[in-house]
Design goal:
Elements lengths: L2 H14 L3 H19 L6 H20 L3 H21 L5 H18 L3 H18 L2 H17 L3 H18 L2 H17 L3 H18 L2 H17 L3 H18 L2 H17 L1
């Protein structure tokens, strides 16, 4: 009866270290256990809750593997389970759960460059968060809306959202979050042509990324630094940062991992 939680710990461990395909393997093991449990108790609220949580983390793992179609599919599955739970339990914190889903779906749409759908999901989540007043969620939403408006070429509005996010994450001492917002601010100053300021901020992004152990943030900072150094004709620094970017990128995404994750889901469906 403890196997689900053991698999969950492994899934979190491997996802946190960037081994997303191995993480997915454990997630599908979790789904197999839930399928077996639900066969005898189709309306069990505990099982439905575990389904929704597992679908969310599977969606996020696919998102990290840059498979946004699959990410959105599993976020929708999670939303369906949440809505099912809300009908069974009037005290279920449905708005808190939906808010997380809307943030995640917005992120997947953003990654797919569907900026309008991303904005709609983030705005919906922002409105819901005004009742909950969760500062961490505010940080995520301000950061993501900043990216949306940056992509829409509304740079003053993007900077406003970025600064709101920076203020929150500084107060929360959120190391990983600081790495993310410094990356985005570095990108902003790159786009506005202030390359020296961009480099200063991106070095902070790289430093915070290393402290947080976040490979993706390190990869992003290295890529931005490479482009910025090139703009000021520091070719040696640009090359060094590009090599770091490639090294980190290759450690996360490769064709074997993508094929492996596709086989994992097919195996789960076959077993079911």
């Amino acid at each position: 009866r403890h196997l689900y939680f053991i698999y969950e710990q492994f899934a979190q461990l491997f996802s946190g270290s960037g081994n997303y395909s191995i993480s997915l393997d454990y997630h599908f093991k979790m789904l197999n256990l839930l399928d077996a449990e639900q066969a005898g108790e189709p309306d069990n609220e505990t099982i439905l809750g575990r389904y929704s949580n597992t679908y969310v983390t599977i969606g996020t793992t696919y998102f990290n593997l840059e498979n946004n179609v699959k990410a959105l599919e599993y976020y929708q599955k999670a939303l369906d389970k949440i809505n099912q739970l809300a009908k069974l339990d009037t005290d279920y914190p449905v708005n808190d759960k939906r808010l997380i889903i809307f943030i995640n779906m917005g992120g997947a749409y953003l990654s797919s460059r569907d900026f309008e759908k991303a904005r709609q999901n983030f705005e919906k989540a922002l409105e819901m968060n005004r009742q909950i007043n969760n500062q961490v969620y505010y940080g995520v939403l301000y950061n993501n809306l900043g990216i949306v408006y940056k992509e829409k070429k509304d740079l003053p509005k993007a900077l406003d959202y970025y600064n709101k996010c920076l203020d929150i994450r500084t107060r929360l001492a959120d190391t990983a979050g600081m790495a993310q917002i410094f990356n985005n601010l570095g990108d902003y100053y790159y786009l506005t042509g202030d390359y020296n300021k961009s480099i200063v901020i991106l070095k902070q992004a790289l430093d915070f990324s290393r402290k947080a152990g976040n490979i993706r943030s390190q990869m992003k900072a290295a890529n931005f630094l490479s482009m910025t150094y090139e703009k000021i004709n520091k070719q040696g620094d640009a090359l060094a940062m590009h090599k770091l970017f490639k090294q980190l990128n290759d450690s996360i995404i490769n064709s074997e991992q993508i094929q492996y994750t596709a086989r994992l889901e097919l195996q789960y469906q076959y077993d079911k």
